[in-house]
Write a structure and sequence with these properties.
Layout: H1 10-20, E1 29-32, H2 42-57, E2 61-66, H3 76-89, E3 97-99, H4 104-116, E4 120-123, H5 127-133, H6 151-163, E5 172-175, E6 190-194, E7 208-210, H7 212-223, E8 227-231, H8 238-247, E9 257-261, E10 265-266, H9 273-281, H10 296-302, H11 306-316, E11 324-325, H12 327-341, E12 343-345, E13 347-348, E14 351-356, E15 365-370, E16 378-383, E17 386-390, E18 410-413, E19 418-426, E20 432-440, E21 457-458, E22 461-462, E23 467-474, E24 499-507, E25 519-522, E26 526-530, E27 539-546, H13 550-557
Parallel strand pairs: 1-2, 2-3, 8-9, 10-11, 12-25, 14-20, 18-21, 23-27
Antiparallel strand pairs: 4-5, 5-6, 6-7, 13-24, 14-17, 15-16, 17-22, 18-19, 19-20, 23-24, 25-26, 26-27
Length: about 550
Amino acid sequence: MAELNLAPNFIQNIIEEDLKEGKYSSGIHTRFPPEPNGYLHVGHAKSICLNFGLAERNRGLCNLRFDDTNPTKEDTEYVDSIQEDIKWLGFSWGDRKFYASDYFGKLYEFAEKLICKGLAYVDDLSAEEIRAYRGTLTEPGKESPYRNRGVEENLDLFRRMKAGEFPDGAKVLRAKIDMASPNIVMRDTVIYRIARAEHHRTGNEWCIYPMYDFAHPLSDAIEGITHSVCTLEFEDHRPFYDWLLDALDFDVNTRPRQIEFARLNLTNTVTSKRKLRQLVEEGYVRGWDDPRMPTICGLRRRGYTPASIRKFCEEIGVAKGNSLVDVAMLEHCVRDDLNENADRVMAVLRPLKVVLTNYPEDRTEYLLADNNPMHGGSRFVPFSREIFIEQEDFMEDAPKKFFRLKPGGEVRLKHAYIIKCEEVVKDEKGNVVELRCSCDMDSKSGGPTSGRKIKGTIHWVDAKTALKAEVRLYDYLLETDADGNVPADFLDGLNKGSLEVLEDAWIEPSVKLTAAGTHYQFLRTGYFVVDPDTTPDHLVFNRVVGLRDSWAKAAQKG
């Protein structure tokens, strides 16, 4: 299980206060309760790290519980992906994997108990009528004409709902609380509805299903959860959470308590499952794991590492109020991790051919290059008469402070020689297609002229042995305004330049047969990862993040 350096936060302070007061003597127990109706995103990563981190810090346990109370939107595909994502992040739930559907029988019994206590009733109002009767933030609600049905009638109707006697939407079960409550959630919350839909685990056993507000606190109580950590949108639901546990006589010293924290909001990002599903289903992206998506599987394919995401979640902390986090902070954490762990290689993304006119045509030598200055290691890089350099490393009409290659100018080739541009070859349209250069054969490391001072150093690959590769350059999927906000209609903010595919890139042969998921720093270009589309005959790389760390620079200035 991953180790988290979870900083002190207000939830941890609450836990410590509860323990001081003698509550939860059996130990701290948290849970991560995803609904299996989509893929997890980076906001869920924050919740995963928080819930598992709180359990770890307090030597407690954390359950994985699927909130599978809405069979019309759920699928085993999502169940499997959620488990894979949590494991990839480095967390384990051990043998504590549960489903709300495990408790359907118990939840039904709890509903009958509420009816018997006069705290729930069957309502025949339609969904539209219930909304109209509920009132507004400034006006109280109106009681349903079915609110005062007797216990026996309500029990009979509820059992007939369970038996499938009524069509979908004909009746619901509501908690009987207070239609004049200033909190709209407390105005006779709907707790069961009729839905004839095949469930991914229980099949057609049930035709009535509990609502989330009913299933969630009771599932927590059944599992012995001590602290039920939710995002802020559930703050208004906490009074019902407590009301329900009170109504069903759960001990206040051992039952769970709900605590809310601010969800993760990132610039250039949407973390709404509905909107992410829209991007997938309407073809704006290639799938849930498209590297432009903020889903955990998308981040994984993009090349983000589990350690960097955990570090990001530690750095942003846990707050009570919503705020917008700059996505550059996440990129900084990824860059910091890869800087330490990714091997360096040379790759040319937009190639320009260079012929070294005085280098022997039949000669190939192998030059020593370091793999990673952080942890050492080295490799041999082939070098011969023809090489590729980046097109942007040559300029025919170069300004004074351009220290790369230009007519009559010299540069040092990384790990190799100093070369001088002697001739520029163009095609019939005037485009530069080849450079002819002379090579200072004594300027290699250890040679007589290796100490010559040259201002520019560029990377290169050997044309004879380099491997052709497809390189996918990803940018933000969404563009934002100056304050980092996405447009009201997020589709209006889609970045048309979020993906650029380079099909004629070249990379040194040391990466041959590298497995998908392997990271490299392409010298002077950025961090890249081998994409799962790679085959032995077709290399595919995704750009993870560039070399420039705007967040670190901003943090230093701050």
